[in-house]
Here is the input.
Amino acid sequence: MLSPSRQLPRVGARARITHFGGGAEEVVLIAVREGGRRVEVRNEQDEAFEFVLSQATARFIAAGQGQGPRLELIDSE
Here is the structure.
């Protein structure tokens, strides 16, 4: 049986937002939608951000933006 080629997002998992220019911040997934293709995260300052899975790159990018922050899942399943 084949396993997923990428880590699947899950509520409560830790992730990292990588900002253009090299800054990064750790966040926690608070919602997973559209079969894992759209996620919402919250940072330590209680700010929420939404990311979508890019069909072109298979990476999570800020919703509504082609450029900008990227999301990397860091929790292992």
